[in-house]
Every structure is written in structure tokens, then in C-alpha cells.
Amino acid sequence: MSLTTDRKSTAELIGLDGLLPDGFRLLASCFDAHHTIGGGLFAIGEAVEEIDRISSSGLCADDGLLYRCLWSADGSPAELVVYDETGVRRYHRLDNVSTPHDILVVDGNVLVAATMQNEVQCVSPDGEVAWRWQAPGEADSWHLNSLARYRDRTVVCGFGEFLRRRGWDENGKPASGRVVDLETGEPVLEGLKAPHNPYYDDGTWLVCDSATGDLVEIDDTDRDQQRRLALPGWPRGLVAAGNHLFVGLSPHRHAATSVETAAVAVVDRVNWSVVGVVNLPAREVYALALAPAALVEGARQGFGANQTRVHEQGQWQMFDRLGVRPRRLWAVGDPLAEDECHASITLDGPVVDDAEAGGLLTLDCLVRNTGAGMLTPAPPFPVRVVHRWIAADGTEVTTQPIRSALPQSLPPEAVTRVPVRTRVPDMPGLYKLHITLAQDDGVPFDQLDPDSALVLDLSVVSGHPDYEALSGFGLYPNEVRAACNSGGTVSDVVRTLLSRPSGTYNGLTLGLVQEHGTGAFVSAVAAVLRGSASAVEHMVLAAIPDYDDVKLTGAEAVALALHRCGTRVAFAYAGTSELALCDALARVGLLVNGRGDRESLFQAGGASRLSAGTGAAILHGARGLTNALGALADLRRNEMGTLAVVGMPSTGSQPFLPPHGEPDLIGVSGDFAKSWFELGAVPKDDPRDYIEEFGSKLLQAIEDVRQAPHGPVLFALPQDVAEAEWLPLTALPLIPIAEQPANDERALSRAAELLAAARRPAVLIDDYALTHRGVQAALAAFCARTGAPVLQVKYRARCVNTKPASVEKNGYDRRAVHRRFERPTADLDAPVPGLSGARSRERSPAAAVAKIGDPRRRVRRGG
Q: Where is each Conserved hypothetical protein CHP03032 domain found (predicted)?
């Protein structure tokens, strides 16, 4: 149903006498966002009473107190006023809230729908913000407005889960409105158009479906709409009392000739019909609340509880009062003459040098009226702040049209602060941003006066740091940025992130979601969209499919397996047949570009020297592997366990041999490796046996890498197998955790006994052992306690390292020790020169000894 403002057929009521509970009044909180006849707080009983003329929005009566949120335009702080029966009891300035809508009191805390900030704030009794629920997206992208209780939960109402500012308008005002659970982010109600004021009671919902002009009743069991009632205006503000409903009505906000006022419609809940309307002397009504008459009097007193101050101020104000209420509170926006179209605009903050491509840029500006007329935001021709982007070649770049309203009327030389929001061009580069004023249906001021514009030189850059938050899920920053720009809603973005360009599920990303957990993925998406995790959780979980329906490519399966088995780096010199492998490994954060196939294999072996399987290599299928055969043999000889994945030509081109392949390449090259595995084409008819074979070979290859004696293992994957989606995610074999060598407790105990009984313990160590993490520190501690000398095997002409640097580094003279061992001694308990005091952790300088004999005569050379 289309919105109508026709009230001619509706009975006009003077008040609500007989329709309200005894001793109560209906309070109407009204505001004027477009500077016409103003807002205020009004009490309706037998008639309409003016409490004050201060524009306000949210209103809530709870536990003997009346909570009221004063309206503020974009860029100005909102105010929270709390009344008791005497007057104002508390006042809090809400610095990070502008264009506030609803408030709701829960357990003494005040929840505020901060519409421009796109969030719900919880304000504690001391005025501090206890927590925030941040909807993802730009400022005012969801248009959060009303708060309500649903059983033991709190829900918030919005126009839709859009990502761009005022996304509901930009997307054609669809039926995307929803009521969302703050705790889970789950939509409780959906399919509404600009909904406000959800109210739940005894299994039934009532909602103002404002853009249709209807009041809607919805059954909570199946969430089906039971009935609709067309109302003569924009419904917003809802109170239930007995068999009657009271619904706030507002005229069309943007109708230039509209001078209608707000009203309250009385609805018979049984007959589902409008009984009549009570007109209000204000432009728009936002909230309604039932309050005891005594509390209404407290609101009337306001800050006037101190009668002495009120009397003194009243004497001064008496001389300023004319006694006549004007029809309009602000000036009318008549067309401006050319000499009135002048302004000065300056930045009210730091200079901005760059902006994110496609993002929303906010600049605080000071606007001064330097013309001869009044600049007013009032209709029918309001003055607004406008902008345009000029590219480096001088052409104007079209972006989302965003106009910023003046927060107040400006007489000549008056100044006001305006937050200017502009959509940044999508293409990176150098631009000039022109900010000026324009009256509706008029030309920009700077076309009449070039000095009436602020011109900024800006560098538009791509991406923002938060795009990196999803790198742990196999997504490149440019892909995340493209997804964020792919659609208007959060759900669109998440579905794009979880899909390939072809439309199928993104197997690698979903495999990493499965591995890291959905909670981690929800947090990463929230970081990218700059919202609370609870705000996006439901949409993310709804977009994740059943893992049985997800398929991996062969390259993704290998990359996930390496990632899960503990491989920390994979080296590759990317060619053709292995590009899919390189891409998959880059997405899981393992890829490092090598300088050649041979060099990449050497690097993988070096990375795996201390722990088998730490490094891996990707080799090209023909010339790359043959070039790396020397490295393969070296790794085998030195027992370095690493997996070398060979990107083979596609199975369709392999029969044509060079340059597409080499005959029996893997079988011949496998003689240089510890073991090798080669896969053929995926069967088109029934791949179940092939899937099992793939998993078995992949597991065996990883196990061969881990098991001693270590060595390199070849795993050959054809290009078509690597690129095609054929392996169900759930069929990827689980990678067992590498077994850690168990300590032989009996051997350790025996060694301790031998050490305790030894008179001259000595340590003979291979230099290979010293490369292991922690060995040198443990060896130093061992020698400090036992006084044992360390003899290091040297695979050269001598068996003992006698370099002076080694002597100095280890703190004792091994040459002297060696000489001492050569001389016969009758006293085996005599102290060894150079080691006296070792047991007391003291070392004496090396003693002068005789020339050492040729060690080759007594000790067999190693190596």
C-alpha cells in the first residue's frame, strides 16, 4: 500500500479522555529535522498540553523516571535528560551520538540508537558508554532507529543490512527492513519497508511499516503477517493500552509545500480500525510513552526546579517575548539572488592527503555566509553543502550524490560547522575535491563566485588495512575489496567471499573456515566491515554451506594438507603447470618465490633440516624437475625430509611428450628421492576410487617425509587435476599430528647414574647437533654443573676443533685438554689443567703444556 497523508475522512479528537489508564498521560516526543515549525514534548490527556518546545526523539518511562533523548543534527552531540517528579534528575551529553532515534532502559542502563554512527550504545547511569553494538557498514547504512524487548532479549529495528550510507534509498527502497536480535544478530522479523517501533506482547508483534503507511500485526509463531491497517501518514511511535493502540503520524518530510503537523492516531485493536486522530503542534512525532501525571509535571518543570534562578531569568526573558506564536519557526527557503550566493568554506580539522577508493570520506568544515542574504536549510529551496570530484585530466567524476544539510540558518557573516560526507571515486589517482554550497534547483555557488569553494588535492588509494583481516582465510585484499563493493548488503558481501567467480563455493576459503572455526571467520568479517561480531554472525553463518557440498581443486587440497601438517614455507619458481599450486599456497600463507627450481628445492631442504616437513618446494613438471635433480640427490644424501610437489602438464597434453612432458619423468627422477607418487587424470564417470587413491597417496607422502631416515619425497600433480574442482572438502584426509620422539626414561636414568659415578665426564658432539634450537644453552648448563669438557667432531684432517675463536667462545682451552690427555698420569683423580674449579663453576686459565703429537695416529678421522 502506498503512503497517504489524507486525514479528511478521519475524525479529529481534542484529547484522549477515557482512552488512557487512570492517572496517566500520553507523551509525544516530536522533532523537526528540516526547520519548519519545530518540535517539542507534548502531553495528551483531555487535551494537548505543551511541555516544552525542544525537539526530541527517543522517550521511555521506567521505574519512576522519564528518559528523553534530545534531537541533534549530524555533527552535533545528542543529550540525554532524565526526569523525576520534581524535575531534571540527571543530564548527560552524548558526544558520540548524532541524529539519535530511540532509547530503551534495560536494567538501569539506557540503550541509544545512534543512527548516524550505525550503532547501539549502552549508556550507564554515570553517563559512560558501557558497550557498543556496531552494525557493519558506513555511517547510517542500516538506519537503526527503534529498540524493543523481545522476551528476555533486546532487538533493534533498521531499514536493511546495507554497507553504504543510506543504502536503503540508494537501492530503491526495497522491503529489506528487519528487526534484529542484538545478542545473536539474527533477524527476528524481515521483509518490511522502513519499519519502526516493533512491539511484542503475548506471541504477537506490532510494527509500524512506515514506508507503506501501514500498521502491521505479525504472528510470532510463523512470522506471517496477520493483518495490515492503512494510516493517514507516516506511522512512527507506538503505545498499546488495553484495547487501543496509539500510533504517531507525521506528514511527508520532503514535500516542499507541506505545512501539515504531526498527529496521534487512535486504533481500536479489536475492530482494527482508526477511531480518530489528535493533532499536535509540531512537524514530526518520533516516540510515544505512557507516563504518570506526576512524572509529566516533573518533565514540565525540567531545569526549573530552582525557582530563584527561574524567576531571575524570567524577568530578562519577559522583555524578549512578543506573545505571538509564528506559523513557521524558521525562515522560508526562497530562491536566492546572485549577490546572496557567496560563502567561505574552510577545513575544521587536520588536512587530509589521501582517501580510500570507493570509501566514504567525512570532512568537518566551517561554513561562513559572506553573501547579503539568509542561507537556510528550510524548504522549499534549502541550501546544502555539495561537492564534486575532478580528475587529473580535468574531467568531472560522477560519484554517489550526497548533500549535507546546514544545521542552522545563517544570516550574513554567521558561521556554522558542517560534517561533509563524500563518496570517493573508485579509481585510484590524483583528484581535486571541490566543496561548495548550492540551493535546491540552483547552481553551485562556486560557479558564480570561485572563492565560494574549498578545493582539496587528494590522492585516492586502493584498499584499507582491514582487508588483510581475511588473509588467513585464503582471500587476497583486492578480492575482499571487490566483494565489499559487489553488493549493497552484508549478506551479499559474505556470499561473494565464499564463492568463486564461477559461482561455485570457494573450497579453499571454506576449508580454512572449517579449520580455524566459524567464530574466527565471523570476527574477521566484522573487522573488514567495521562492525560488531554479533551484528554479522547470523548473516555469516547463514551463508556458510554444508561442507559436504563444497569441492576443492587438486591444488587447494595439496595446499590445505601442507598447511594442516605443519609446513611453514613453500618455495617455488612459478612456471605454467604449477601456477594453480602456487596460487593455493600463496592463499594459505606459505609461498615464497625462489630464484629457480633447483634453488627452491635447496631452500625447502634447508627449512626442513631441523624438522622434517617444515619446508616444501613446488617444481615445474619437465625442465624444472630435471634442473633440480642435483638438489634432490643432495637432500637425499643429507637426509633432509621435504615434500617436492611437481606440477605436471595436463593429462591431455602429456602424451605429446616434449615440450609438454618427458617420458617416465617421475619414475626416473624418483630414484633420487626417498619415495615418489604420481597421479593420473580424474575419471569423469565415478571418481570415488580416485578420490580415495589421492588421499591415500597424499597421506603416505607426508608420512614418508616425517619418518626417519628422512629424505625428499616427490608428489606429481597434473595441471588439469590441480585446477579442476573435484575433491569434496569432507573427503580431504585428516592429517595426523607428527609423532614426537618419546624419551627413553630407562636410558636417561642409566645415563644419569653413569654421569654421577664418572670422575672425568667429557662430551663428544657432532656440529650438526649444535644447529638444533636450545642445544647450545642446554650444553652450557650441563658443562657448568659437571665441569665436562666438550669435544666437537670436525670432519677434516683433525678430530678436534682448535680454532682460537672456538676456545674463546666456549670458555675453555680444548687444545690444552687434549694435550693433558696425551700425557700418562698415575693419578686419575688429579685435576685437569684448565678445568680446575669446574665443579664449583670456576675456571682457571689454561696451563702451559707440551707440544701435542699428531692426533691422526691416535684418533680415527671422521667423514
A: 97-285
